[in-house]
Write the structure tokens for this entry.
Amino acid sequence: MEAEKQAKMAEYIQSIAAIEDCMKPYREQRKELRRNFLENRWLSKDDISMAMKAFRMWEQQIDFDNFTKIYEAVDTGFIDKEGSNDPA
């Protein structure tokens, strides 16, 4: 690998490491938030998981109507497949 590329890779890794270090307190805060909601029984693990999935979809600006159509098509496909495997 050429020297300039090695230097840029090292620079990139150092920058990523610095960013990861800065993010660490926020990860701890997120874990504490989850723990707090579980301990107070405000939400279950499944509720939190579903909320996080909804957040990720919102964050990525997923077209929910389109997602629903795709999900229903996939779900129907799996139901059809499961039904064809029945020995009865």
User: Anything to note?
Assistant: The first helix runs from residue 3 to 39. The chain has two domains: 1-42, 45-88. The chain has a mean pLDDT of 89.
